[in-house]
Write a structure and sequence with these properties.
InterPro entries: ARM-like (IPR011989), ARM-type_fold (IPR016024), PBS_lyase_HEAT (IPR004155)
CATH architecture of one domain: Alpha Horseshoe
Order of helices and strands: HHHHHHHHHHHHHHHHHHHHHHHHH
Shape: globular
Number of strands: 0
Protein name: HEAT repeat domain-containing protein
GO molecular function, one term: oxidoreductase activity
Oligomer: single chain
CATH class of one domain: Mainly Alpha
Low-confidence stretches: 413-420
Organism: Salinadaptatus halalkaliphilus
Number of helices: 25
Structural class: mainly alpha
Amino acid sequence: MALFELERNAEFDELITYLEESSNADIRRRAAEILGSLESEAGGNSYPRDDVVDALVAAAKDDDNEDVRAGAIDALDQYGQEALERFIGEISGEDIDDVAEWKKAQILANGLDAELPELRMAAATGLGRIGETNVVGTLAERMSDPDPRVRKRIARALGRIGAPESVPVLAEKLHEDQYDVRIEVAYALADIGSTNALRELIDIADDEDEVLRRIAVDALGRLGSVEAVEILAEALSDESDAVRRTAMFSLVQLLSEAPADASHTVREKIVDELAEANEREAVEPLIEILDRSTETAQRRNAAWLLGRITTEEYRSAAQDALIQTLGDDDEMTSKFAATSLALLDGEELEGRLLELVENDHKDEGTRSKALFVLGKIGGDSARDRISGFVDRTESDRLRKRGFSALSKLGGVGAPSGDFA
């Protein structure tokens, strides 16, 4: 069974088997990552949490591939401080279970000087979780660690702690380290979110170096601020296709990251900026997200945005993508696709939706959403065909949705309600 299927079905036993027994290091690393991502499902009725942590500790200690060991440490991080400390205790010989937080931070800070890089990585990760600001200086000094895996985790820890005083040393690494460390540094600056951190990201958003521009627009999607929207919108016209696409992904991500008290303002700002952008640079990446992305938040926001920024040239392509999304497994994504389709009424859409409704091979969820859209955009032809459809369908759900659509179209129907 493919790893993505094991992830979808939360098959912990098989994932642990891949982690422990696969001869392919990439598969072992990916199995560790998936086990980390499934943290919320371990420990309940699904699977014993301790068994997962034991397997990850063993991989972090003993696997012969450094990327697998790093992936296992990051997965342990997903299981919380206790899981990390189990690994640290086993590899260092120190019992830190019942130690006060300030003392624990001191022990972990000492671990930054350990000979074993995996212990330094775990120590940095643990310090970021504890969040004691008195270790910021120690962490910042260790940004010169010879192992890039350690530098990544130190940058991540500084971002978690959110100390503006660490911005200068992070900014230095933003310009001179290897690519994956630079990415982590940029994320840390975005997580810190102070004025000086934001300034560093904005400064490199128009740098001559394409790599730096891409890193900046990637990180700015984590800020959830109006200021970031303007920079990302400008990046949609970047000469680099990679930067343009990253900017769009970040704008979509930013919709999810915006704080509740600023969400409406940020959302309106994004719509305004995208409406003014070149449509090809704005619409095509959104269609690509719906077609390829597996991240729920991205797909929801892409579906919502398409209905609000697409004009005539890309209307048909946007309709295609949204129709395909009507049957999405995520109910909110399918609802956003339906409401966006209702905003993109145009030639042939009514006919396409009617054919979809009358296709018995399509799932009920998709056909129900199509009936909802028809209730918004349909004309006389839709009313006549839906009337005939409700008379012959054997599905109570579709009959109810059909009556709801008819009531909106002026036919005989039941009281309507969105997505009843």
